[in-house]
Design brief:
Jelly Rolls, 25 strands, disordered N terminus, seven-stranded mixed beta sheet, globular, alpha+beta
Length: about 350
C-alpha cells in the first residue's frame, strides 16, 4: 500500500474501473481530508489543438485517483465525500467526437479546442469568456459484484457527470465493500447539465475531499446534499425513461427515510402522500427543455443587438426558454441563438463554437 504524506495521492495512483476487489492506496479515519491529484478525462493524451480524439488510446479514458479506504466503513453504511475544493490547472480542452453528441450531424468533427482558465473564468478567445464552475465527473466506491469501467455510471457512482458536484457538495455513497474504496477523477472546469457535445471543458487539477461515515443507512444510488437541496440519482443504459423511473423511486424512498428519521415516525403519511411530495422535486422533462447558459460574457458593444439582460459592458445570456421541444431541439435552438451573434465575435474559430458553448453550459 502506498503512503501519502499529508494525505495527498498523486495522479499516477489510478484505477480504470470500479469493482468489488479494489485495493486501497491509502487508508484514513473518518473526518480526515485527502487531496487527490486528478488527470483530465483522456489522461494527458491531448495537450494541443493538433491532438484529435480520433487518435487517442480509449483504454486510457476517465482515470480515477485512488482508491481510499475509510476505516470502519462496512456494507450498509454510507461513505460521505465532502468536496472542500476543486482546483483546475490553467488550460483545458473540449473535443467533438465523430458520431457522438446531439448536434454532431451539423458540425465539423473531429475538433479540439484549448481553453485558458484563469481568475474564475474560461476564455474561449480574446473577446468571449464564461465563468468557470469546476466539478468532478467520475466519483464513486467499490461495487458489490460487477466491475464497471469508469465510463459507466451505476449504483456505486462512477461517471455520474453531475455538474453540481463541485465545491460544497456532500456525496453519500452506499458502501458495499469493507472500507468503501473511494476514488475520484474526470475534472471539468465547466460542464453543462448533460454533455450534449460529449465533453465539458476537460482539465486536470486537484480536488480536496473530507471523508466521513453515516453508519447503518444508505440509499440504492448515490445521494448529493447541497446547501439548498438534496439530489438523488438513478442510472440506466440507453433508456432515459428507465433512469427517470429509478430516480423517481429513489426520491420517494429518500423522502420516506428522512420522514422517519426526523419525526420518529413517518412524517409522510403513506404511499400517496410521499409520491405527492415527490412531485415537488425537480426532475428532467421529456417534452420541454429550459436552455440556459450560466453566463456568457461578450466583451464588446453587441449587447443591444443580442437583446438580453445587460450589465455594464457585458452581455449576459440567462434562462433562454426554449419550451415546446425536446432536449435536442432546445440544444439546437440555443446554438442558433449563439450563432446569431455578430460574426466578428469569432465564435466560428472553434469550428463548432455555438454548439460547444451550448454543450459546456447547457
Amino acid at each position: 500500500m502506498a503512503t501519502a504524506v499529508g494525505h495527498r495521492i498523486g495522479r499516477d495512483e489510478i484505477i480504470w474501473a470500479f469493482g468489488p476487489g479494489l485495493e486501497p492506496v491509502l487508508e484514513v479515519d473518518p473526518g480526515e481530508t485527502v487531496t487527490f491529484e486528478t488527470n483530465d478525462c483522456f489522461t494527458g493524451q491531448i495537450t494541443s489543438e493538433d491532438d484529435l480524439v480520433t487518435e487517442i488510446d480509449f483504454e486510457r479514458v476517465n482515470s480515477a485517483t485512488g482508491p481510499v479506504a475509510v476505516r470502519g466503513a462496512e456494507p450498509g453504511d454510507s461513505l460521505i465525500a465532502e468536496v472542500l475544493d476543486v482546483r483546475p490547472i490553467e488550460f483545458g480542452f473540449a473535443c467533438l467526437i465523430p458520431g457522438f453528441g446531439q448536434l454532431i450531424d451539423e458540425v465539423q468533427s473531429p475538433v479540439t479546442r484549448m481553453f485558458r482558465v484563469e481568475d474564475g473564468w474560461i476564455e474561449m478567445n480574446e473577446r468571449v469568456r464564461f465563468p468557470a464552475k469546476p466539478m468532478v465527473g467520475v466519483v464513486g466506491v467499490a461495487t458489490d459484484r460487477d466491475t464497471l469501467t469508469n465510463g459507466l455510471a451505476g449504483r456505486h457512482g462512477g461517471n455520474l457527470d453531475d455538474h453540481l458536484h463541485g465545491k460544497g457538495a456532500r456525496l453519500y455513497f452506499p458502501v458495499r465493500q469493507e472500507g468503501g474504496m473511494f476514488a475520484v477523477g474526470d475534472m471539468h472546469a465547466s460542464m453543462g447539465d448533460g454533455e450534449i457535445c460529449f465533453t465539458g471543458v476537460e482539465i486536470s487539477g486537484e480536488v480536496t475531499i473530507r471523508v466521513s461515515l453515516l453508519k447503518g443507512k444508505q440509499g440504492t444510488w448515490p445521494v448529493t446534499e447541497l446547501a439548498d437541496r438534496w439530489v438523488v440519482h438513478g442510472t440506466a443504459g440507453q433508456d432515459f425513461m428507465e433512469a427517470l423511473d429509478r430516480a423517481s423511486e429513489e426520491g420517494a424512498r429518500f423522502l420516506e427515510q428522512i420522514g422517519v428519521e426526523r419525526a420518529g415516525e413517518s412524517a409522510v403519511g403513506g404511499q400517496d402522500d410521499y409520491r405527492r411530495l415527490l412531485r415537488l422535486g425537480r426532475l428532467p422533462q421529456q417534452r420541454k427543455t429550459l436552455g440556459q447558459l450560466r453566463r456568457v460574457e461578450i466583451r464588446d458593444d453587441f449587447r443591444e443587438r443580442i437583446g438580453v439582460r445587460t450589465r455594464g459592458h457585458d452581455a449576459i445570456l440567462r434562462a433562454l426558454h426554449l419550451g415546446g421541444g425536446n432536449h435536442l431541439h432546445g440544444a439546437r435552438d440555443l446554438a442558433r441563438v449563439l450563432d446569431g451573434l455578430d460574426p466578428s465575435l469569432q465564435l466560428a474559430s472553434l469550428g463548432h463554437s455555438p454548439y460547444a458553448l451550448a454543450g459546456l453550459n447547457f
